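Predict structure. Input: DUF171-domain-containing protein, 348 residues.
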Amino acid sequence: MGPPNERGNKRRRLDTKEDEEPERVDISTLKPAKFKPTEPRDWTISVAVPTSVITDCVTREQRTTYAGRIARALAIFSVDEIVIFDDSPPDSRPAKVDHEAYTGDVDPAHFLVHLLTYLEAPPFMRKSLFPMHPNLRSTGLLPNMDMPHHPHKDEWLPYREGLTISGKTKNGKGTLVDIGMRQPVSVPDEVPPKTRLTLKLGDIPDANVEPEAVHPNLPRTEGGYFWGYTVRKAGSLSQVFTESAYEDGYDMSIGTSERGLPVNRAFPYSDTVSDFKHLLVVFGGPRGLEFSAMNDPELTEVNVGGGRIRELFDHWVNVLPNQGSRGIRTDEAMLIALTSLRRLWDLS
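Output follows.
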C-alpha cells in the first residue's frame, strides 16, 4: 500500500482536520472500536475506473473532489483494490510527464493514483509519507475516510497501522513505531525509518504486549476487518486483467453498461452468495467501456470493441435501467452498482 513519494516545489496546504496529527493517548484509556469484524475472508473485491472520469473536470479542485468521491464510495463498500486504467487515445498521451509537477491535466492516471493512495493512508502518517506536491494542494477539499485502520484517539482494534521512526527502544534493540498514540511502540525487527507496517496488538488494550509486525492482509484474512484498499495503475483496459496482482487473476468479472442486463436478471435472487475468489467490477467513463476498448491497442488488434466488448466479462450489467437523468456519473454509478451487487457476497 505504499504511496508514491513524489516531491513538489510548492508548499502543500494543510487546512483540514484530516491532515492534523491526532492527540496522543495512553493505551490504558482506549475502548473497543465500533467496527465489528465479519468472518475472516480471503476473497476480495476489486473495482476498475478509467482516467476519463475526470476529463470533464476543468479545475484542480474539481479533479480533487472527484478523486475523493471515488475513494469514499469504495471505502464505504469495503473494496479491497482500486485499479485506475488509462482509456485516453494513445496518440494523445504525452511522451514525457514531469511527475514532480501537477499531473491532473496531463497524466490523470498518476494524479488519481496519487490522491487515492494519499486518502488510504492513516492521517497521522501522511505528512511523513507524502512530501509536499502540487497534486496535494487542495487536500482540504477531501473527505474524511474514517476506515477501520484510521484510528480514533480513544478506540482500540486488535490491529493498527504504524510508521517506523528514528530513536532507541528501551532495550536498545528493534525499531520504534508511531501508531498515533502518545508513545510509540517497538517491534523486535530492524526496519528503516518511514516504513509503513501493519501491527497485531491483541484483543484488549495491554501496554505490556509487544506488537507483532504482520502481513497487511492479515486483519482481513484472520480478523475479518476491512483494512483499506490497494491502488494499482494499468495502462489500458486489457492490462486491468493481464496485470492482476492476484496469482490466478480475477475469477469473476462484471462490466457495467447501459446496454447490459438489469442486475436482477444477470443475477437472479438466490439463498447463497456467488462463488468467487477475486471479483472485479469495471466501470466506464463518460463515453462508456466501448471508448476504453477503442483506445486499447491490444483489444483493437483482436477486434474487441463496440458490441463485442461484453465478451471480456463474465457478466455485462446495467446498474440502473430507466434512469431519470440523461447521464449518470461514474462516481454515482459506483454507489448504485455496489448497492445492487453487494448481495453477491453479503447476505446479512
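The chain has two domains: 17-21+41-148+227-344, 155-221.
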